[in-house]
Amino acid sequence: MSPTSATSQARELLGVSSLTNKALRTWLYGLPGVDQVGLEGRAAALATRSIKTDSKAWAIDTAIGMIDLTTLEGADTPGKVRSLCAKAELPDPTDLSTPQVAAVCVYGDLVGVAKDALRGSDINVAAVATAFPSGRATLPVKLADTRDAVEAGADEVDMVIDRGAFLAGDYRLVFDQIAAVKQACARPDDAPDAHLKVILETGELATYDNVRRASWLAMLAGADFIKTSTGKIQPAATMPVTLLMLEAVRDWRELTGAMVGVKPAGGIRTSKDALRYLVMVSEIAGDDWLTPQWFRFGASSLLTDLLLQRQKLRTGAYSGADYVTID
Amino acid sequence: MTPKFEYAPAPESRSVVDIASSYGLFIGGDFVDPTDGKSFKTVNPATEEKLADVSEASAADVDKAVRAARRAYDRTWSRMSGAERGKYLYRIARLLQERAREFAVLETLDNGKPIKESRDVDVPTAAAHFFYHAGWADKLEYAGLGPAPKSLGVVGQVIPWNFPLLMLAWKIAPALATGNTVVLKPAETTPLTALLFAEVCRQADLPPGVVNIVTGAGPTGQAIVDHPGVDKIAFTGSTDVGKAIARAVAGTRKRVTLELGGKAANIVFDDAAIDQAVEGIVNGIFFNQGHVCCAGSRLLVQESIADDVVHRLQRRLRTLRVGDPMDKNTDVGAINSAAQLARITELTDAGVAEGAQRWSPDVELPKRGYWFAPTVFTGVSQTHRIAREEIFGPVLSVLTFRTPDEAVAKANNTPYGLSAGIWSEKGSRILAIADKLRAGVVWANTFNRFDPTSPFGGYKESGYGREGGRQGLAAYLDTEGTH
After folding, report:
1. Is residue A263 annotated as a catalytic residue, yes or no?
2. Nearest chain B Cα to A35, which residue?
3. What is the CATH number of domain B265-444?
4. Which of A56, A88, A292, B212 has a CA that sits 20 to 30 A from residue B253's CA?
5. Cβ–Cβ of B445/A55 closer than 8 Å?
6. How much is the average pLDDT of B247-274?
């Protein structure tokens, strides 16, 4: 979708002749407010769901299949990425029935290495782009960053929004950048476009009202996924923030008929946490979102704990960290 | 095909609690048989299975209990320092925490409420009530109720079946902290946690007779109310019984506090945080199957957002899990008794007959036991019985309003006045509306929140007197020195 068509679609949805900052502001501020106490209370209540036996086994496998196995360090090397890819393909060498993860997420310059390593598998390669994690670069640089990753074969692009522009009230700028990056994710002819995940960096947006507005702005601009965090800022993903974003995609679907995915990232480390997120997906957005196509976990260490719990369910005994491969 | 996240059964273990086959009356620190040997059974409303035989106290038994309470008052409790009384209350509070799981399971078995509520609300809040009042026991002179507030003597307390242990705590904790002794009657359908509490009193070495628990139905309660040795009556229950009590004690020296029925308005303005308001509506009326005197049973929603709110509410109700109260994932449990189920059925039938539109989510109710699906009526008018009468069940009546003044007028247009809720993101509006609502408790952007520090009680036919907080102490103290 070109930025022009994104703009004209947005104009139609907002019922305005020109997509000005004022028009966007009026629309975003027309969304219902978020009561912090109530939102956090709802998330805490859902966290008390008790997931046992068969449903636990199902949820653990589902969660493994939703992981974007991530390494985003300055010290990443081809060797590190290859071993991560090997783990993505074969998470538990002692149990070949273990599902594979959804994607491997790396910096743009390592997309080629990951693509080579995952050749022949169904696992996607996701690249962070647009001057990740701060997003402080000009649009041409962000677009070049994106095209680079797409040309190297990235199946998915995780971009960051310009939080500075958002906090300054320049919603049109945020919108335009998302729409432009979305266009840079396109591939010619029949080749599939890279899917665009838009990182809101909710830890820097600070208020729940802002998270709701940023979610709607990103969906309006063409996001395929909305993602909580880069993992570089605290707090990263939290249950209330994710719950709020699940409400946003649920309501967006009722408004437009289109589904948008949700990806909490950063800070989700235990199986118990992952199961609580799946409960939220089921009870807030609905079971339609319970597939890797519409829900992902951005995580590095979560997989290890899911595998430990999976082994425990299978064998009845806890093994220990040394019985799960580190990468 | 879309997968479905089915939660496997997650039942709480029943084995943590021992239920005796029969129970005596707790009088003077011992379990004793009733004088005329009568008993009645208490059942699990989720299965109709009998749990235990419970003694039915006659007027003679009540007399024994009042005498025991008087003896304990004269010889021990009224002479004890506040600091010493506080120690007993702290001990009881800690024992409630230690035995929390036991109490929660027993409450759910006897009452039918979901285990997650008895575990996360009833029992912890009951313990909190004892902790709070334990702290007051040696500080009564500084409560702003006069320089030397005095205890009243023997207090007769009659409590309902909707929060059996929590209502017991609301009654016993302030009575003991202020130096009174107690004869308490739990409701006939839910006596078991009160009898377990009697065991806790013994475990805490509470002096015999300070707390006496007599089980029975209406006549037992009446014997307490009519007993000349009782100095004060504290009652929580229906407005009809409350009126009868007020008539019975008129012209006597007895003091009375009454916490009665309600038909609370939960007012949602167009600028509310809608998703959280929907949660508040659900919590307001479906918490504890709607067996809550302060339940938000009338939803007053601004007409401009009514369709959206009802749509979101219905979507939310489809995710409620109705069924086995012992399952940790159950949101809505069983109706407490066949009689209550009949009352709810009668009123909802009247709602349909009077022209309101009835809606329930598609839920499969268990075959045995007393069950009622969460129900929402739209198109309700103030004239309908379902808008005026307390249903005391999982039934919400939705009414609309156009302006803030109309919201206030409709909210106040009831003989009751226990509680109300306001949902708005505008602080000034919340304060202005709260000022105009004739209700004892007004929640803003929340509902059904209870805290021992906050006084609770009604206006109009919802009763008089306050429970909790500094104001709640006044109900158990002679503050004028005229007693």
Report:
1. yes
2. B273
3. 3.40.309.10
4. B212
5. no
6. 97
Span B322-351, pLDDT tens digits: 999 999 999 999 999 999 999 999 999 999
> Across the interface, which of B4, B271, B445 has its CB nearest the CB of A287?
B4
ipTM of predicted assembly, 2 dp: 0.96
Calpha distance B174→B196 (Å, rounded): 19
**Backbone dihedral region of B189: left (phi > 0), alpha (psi from -120 to 50 degrees) or beta?**
alpha
Predicted local distance difference test score (pLDDT) of residue B156: 98
**Is B41 exposed, middle or buried (CB count within 10 Å of its CB: 0-12, 13-18, 19+)?**
exposed
Searching chain A, which residue's CA lies closest to the CA of residue B317? A283
**A326 Cβ partners below 8 Å, 6+ apart?**
A304
pLDDT category, B483, cuts 50, 70, 90?
very low
Domain boundaries, chain B: 14-260+460-478, 265-444
Please, where are the H alpha helices in chain A?
3-14, 21-29, 36-46, 53-64, 78-89, 111-117, 139-151, 163-167, 171-184, 202-205, 208-220, 239-256, 271-280, 302-315
Q: Measured between CB atoms, which of B8, B279, B425 is closest to A42?
A: B279
A48 neighbors B120 (Cβ within 8 angstroms): yes
Residue B293 annotated among the catalytic residues of the structure: yes
A3-316, superfamily in CATH? Aldolase class I (3.20.20.70)
What distance separates the 2 farthest-apart alpha carbons in chain B? 77
pLDDT, position A325: 83
Q: What CATH fold (topology level) applies to the domain B14-260+460-478?
A: Aldehyde Dehydrogenase; Chain A, domain 1 (3.40.605)
Q: Are B233 and B156 in contact (CB under 8 A)?
A: yes
With a pLDDT cut of 70, the percent of chain B lying above it is 99
Q: pTM here? A: 0.96
Domain boundaries, chain A: 3-316
B425 contacts in chain A (CB < 8 Å) = 33, 35
> Is B354 assigned a catalytic role?
no
pLDDT at residue B479, as a whole number: 84
Select from B2, B272, B328 the Cβ nearest to the Cβ of A50.
B328
